[in-house]
Amino acid sequence: MDVSLDTDRLYVLIAPLSILLLGCTLAVCWLVQRRQRYLLWMAGGYALVSLALAWQSLAPREELHHWAVFTGAMYLFGTWCFARCMAERYGVSAHPLLGLLIGAVVLAALYYYSRVQIDLWVRVHWLNTGLGLLQMLPAPAMLRRRPPQDWLERMLYWSYVVFAGYTAARPLLVLALGSTDLNEIARSTYWLVTLVSTLSFALLFTLMLLACTVRDVFTALREERNHDSLTNLLNRRAFQEAAELRLADPHMAPISVLIGDIDHFKRINDSWGHDCGDRVLQAVAQTLQQHVRNDDLVSRFGGEEFVLLLMRTTPQEAERVAQRIRAQLSADGYVLAAGQRVTISFGIAPVAANTALTDALTRADGLLYAAKLAGRDRVHVATDPGRRMPQTA
């Protein structure tokens, strides 16, 4: 291929090289944070599209038809990589089989209009239509999902949807320009619009994608710091931090604290092993979470001890919650060998406005101890500062 590197052709290489650099940046980010696989898909898409753009920018018009299928395949697969990136991030499908069908039809058309009947304008029209359809593959499912609440995620979300719509509509631009504008494609208005729009989108989208990724990493680190790794409940430190915020809000009153402890948990570990004990902890944690609301807190304080902080709940109402938890554990039939059932005991105390949380936890812990002494698998509730009332099964 005779490539003439005049000033104009070198100038149009700025966009492809910039896009390739963005792809390399995303690939490096993926190497650092391999759980974010969508970064690798976007990096691959940028690399393929940038190479195709560079190839077509350098090739003389009379030789473009020789490489139409090759560059078309890079455009098509690169664009599908963009769709796969967004599909992975939003948990939807990029419809690979449908994408393969679209790609096959477009490549067949490119072959026909580059080998049988050479027509650059028709090839451009077919390719743009295919790219638009590929990029739109995950868009319907994305639109059906609830739009993200975070402003940064919303910008990422809508920028992709808008650019997907623009890509699908770009054939109309080709139609408006007509084939006469493509006599020298590297200097054509169409090619300038393609390069500028692609580079602008790549820059904007990469910045937002990296910002969202960094935010996700910090969120994941915070979640790991604040949550128990086995049960995914709040740990003691995170519980206390969240509890302070709720206790400072007068709209949350009345507040009750529940301390629950799995009965005979040491026997479970000793008799059936720690793997069985871990499964019991996870089952109990899941049951606890099913009986609380968004404002309530559920925490694993350590071992087999769990703490719940219920907002706008009196001790008597909290006692009904505890009884429902006990009933569900029994109804779920989580039975160990030799017929032993998993049961839990609770101590419940109010958190008064003028009382520290630690005082309420101490009272609830004392009531839990009383429930254990009374035979386990029961709930003890504090009715006033000076009196305890046992509530048995």
TrEMBL record:
All copies of domain GGDEF, residue ranges:
253-384
Q: Which stretches are transmembrane?
A: 12-32, 39-58, 64-83, 95-113, 125-143, 155-178, 190-212
Q: Which CDD domains match?
A: GGDEF
Q: Name one GO cellular component term.
A: plasma membrane
Enzyme superclass (EC):
transferase
Q: Which InterPro entries match?
A: Diguanylate_Cyclase, GGDEF_dom, Nucleotide_cyclase, Rev_trsase/Diguanyl_cyclase
Its UniProt entry gives the catalysed reaction(s) as: 2 GTP = 3',3'-c-di-GMP + 2 diphosphate
What this protein is called in its record is diguanylate cyclase
Q: Which organism is it from?
A: Delftia acidovorans (Pseudomonas acidovorans)
